[in-house]
Structure formats: structure tokens, C-alpha cells
Fold:
Amino acid sequence: MRISNEPRPATSRPTNVGDRVVVVGGGLIGRVTAWRAAQRGLSVTLVEPDPVDEPRRARASSVVAAGMLTPTTEAVFGEERLVELGVRSAGLYADFVAELEEVSGVSVGHRTTGTLLVAFDRDDLAVLDDLHGLQKRIGATGERLTSRECRRLEPMLAPSVRGGLLAPDDHSVDPRLLLRALAVAGERAGVVEVADRVEGVDRATGGARLGVRLAGGGVLPTDQVVLAAGCWNERIALPEPVVP
Structure:
């Protein structure tokens, strides 16, 4: 992986006006954005103070997240449009994983075993009935199960289980492996990584729309900036307010 402490162009190829992109933050969102942008021919620089394997990254959500791809069982009334988006996104994930693993040579720990929700009393059953109704309205896959069917799937369940709801399309991924795979894929696509922290983004002159100020000194000239630093976005000085 190419790690640099010095600002430099994202690739050796000539850049046109509008082609330069600086991605601030090396979590999952930042790295997948950088990878896809580079695939489309943009000149991409990713700024991240901690390397992928650096233990300090445990402070970032991409490392400590559970990796659950479960829009079906996490459906919430009143957020149907968001849930529908999540269901469609989850349906695309297998192809995304296959492409990423082929490009990077890194397995991301994608599991497709589904989720089993169980009920122990009448109130629990009512909740599962409501959730199942919501799933059917948004086109998500869910199957109501009897107590015996639940225990057949999971023999360690107590006989007191009253019933359950199976969500076979719920998947999961190892976010740490996914992070590494995206780092490798980004490098192979031409993304250059700068090991530094961004202090601010300024309007620039001299052929660049923006300048990304680094804590270690220097400025990255760019045409577009993607803020993907998570909760640290608010520490970055911007030329105009940005609402997360």
C-alpha cells in the first residue's frame, strides 16, 4: 500500500479540470468512495492519519462495527422508504463483495446465514407479527415460524420459545476485512493515500477550486472534496457550513 506524508497528485496520469478528488477519512465510506471514483477515471487522494492495520483505528466506527447487513429485521415503522433503500442495497451486496474480493484478493467474511428472531411470550409474538406485516408491505422476505420450527433451526433454544420470525436475506460482513480489501482495491485502482489529518478546506486559486489543508503542513489542490471523517468532520474548517 502506498502511504505518503507528502501531498502529491493521486496518479501519474494527466488531470483535467474537475478530475481531482480528495477523500477525507479512511473508513468504509471513504474507502469505497475513493475506490469507485478511481475506477471511473478520477484522480483520487485519500487522507487518513491511521493506516488500516494501526491499532488506534479501534477508535473509528468502521473497526468496531458489528458488520450487520440487516435492513429486514431492523425495519422501523415510519421509516419505510429508508428500509426499502436498505433492502435494495442489501440485494446488491453479493455482487459488490464478489467484485471487491476478486480485485483485492481479500475475503471480507461475507455471511448469508440469515437472522432468527424469537418470541417468549404473547407480547413478543405481537411484535413479530407487526414486524412481519411491515416486511410484507415493503417487499422484504420474512417467514413466521412455530416454536418447533425455531428449535429445529437453533437446537439450543429453550422449549419455552413461543414462535419466531426468520429473515433469510439478512447477511453480515467482517468490517475489518472489508476495510483491508477496500484499501487494496483502492491502491490498485490508483488511489494515493496521504497519512495525515485534515485541518480545513479553503477556496483556492491557481487552477484549483479547493485546497485541503493538512495538519502536517502543505495543501492538496483539488476540484472536489468528500468528507467521510465520521464524527471528526465537525473539526474540519470549511469555507461554508455543511449540515451532516
